[in-house]
Amino acid sequence: MVNVLISLVGSNPIPIYCLNKYLLGDYRTDEELKRIPKPNKLLFVFSEDTKKYYEGIKERLGDEYKNIIEVCNLKSNQNYADLIEEQIQTKLDEINKKEKIETIILNNTGGTKPMAIYSTMAVYKFAQNNRNVQEIECYIDPIQNKVRLNSLLNPEKYNSSNSYLPEDKDLRFYLKDISMEDILAIHGLPLNHYDEGKLLPNSYEDIKIVSKEEIKNFSHKIISKYCKEYTEFFSTLRKLEDIKKDYKIYQKALKEYYDVELGKKINPLSSQKFKEIFSSYLKKEESSWLEDALPSIKDIINTVNNRENAEKIYKFLSGTWLEHYLMIAVEEAIEEEGLKDEIKLYHSFVCYLDENYKKSQFEIDLVALKGYQIIVFTCTTDSTKGLTKSKSFEGLHRVEQLGGEHAKLCIVNMKEDKEELDRELVGFNSNFYKSKEIISREDLKDYDYLVKKLRDILKK
Q1: Boundary-marking domain end, from 292, 318, 344
Q2: pTM tops 0.85
Q3: N or C: which end of the chain has fewer CB within 10 A?
Q4: CA-CA distances (angstroms) from residue 201 to 30, 71, 179, 402?
Q5: How many whole angstroms separate alpha carbon 459 and alpha carbon 454?
Q6: 345 vs 16: CA distance, rounded Å
């Protein structure tokens, strides 16, 4: 006798993988196993468009399950009702002839709407024609983060008190061993561009340039006291990134503001020129804010001995300090909430889109992975409407791309008015709009309040 788990594979493979992993694992009590048995046959239903997600799920489930997997490839027929129903019924008949089916568990979280509707009809009809077969529909509820159970033939079997699993904690706790490597693999994203260790979680200690107390002090003073001075200083310095676009104007601005001249072919991020730019500026009276905010700035500049080091410190001073500040606050929130064993952090996480072209990529400022749930933090020190909005839209897109409706987005920015940004985002996508959080400059000013807010976000 077999218990068949049917999984409809759509564009978000995470809940499909997670439900398979949970039902196949030894996570449930005897009482929970009575409600939904452990499957010993897996049937994946997919189209040509979603075949790569099935292959990623299969690879991550491991070799121990490869002999119990059956497939139903709809090819390009994922929207044709009669073909969907017919192919699933045919596959169930084939399985039933070899080994009698005892239970059919339909995971209808993914796939197209016709796939969800007509796979349910196929299972219902099969169970009606084979009266000893138990039929169960299930999906991962993105609000409860639990498996929701239902039965069309026996609706009385599941009620408000027994229709959710797990009973005690939510599903994220039991699947806390999932990694970003798993997430990328089940999305069919390439892993071949990563160097050793690049897919491992990291902490502030792995990325720090200054101590935690220094970054907290620096961030607080920039956010609360020196926002104007900081913006003016780095508005010119940020052009280091675009030096080739407007070299003459850049040279003029650098001369006027920093009292530094660049030769025609001098790279401003060479260690020598980088030191010259900052040393010249720090001699000026108007630079007092920078030394007040970061007393060790001269020592930091003196450590620059190569281009890579110069770029790292430049990026830190021109914006990634906010990511560092946020990371230590998130780490503290995780510690205080007792979630250290359940949440993994990844700073500046790069996702490659093409296995043959390394430059086809996007980067996420900070990812907190809670079980299978991706919480993306996107940060910008720019308070202008255009850049804040574009960063927010990109964040919404990346969250949808990697985590679907089970993911969250936290937008961290230096704007005073979070309501204006909130209004701008309301029309993007109602599901992701509801699951996003905005942390504004006002929230960032008080470190203790920021940690409390992050605790609320992470424990939900």
Answers
A1: 318
A2: yes
A3: N
A4: 34, 34, 8, 17
A5: 9
A6: 23
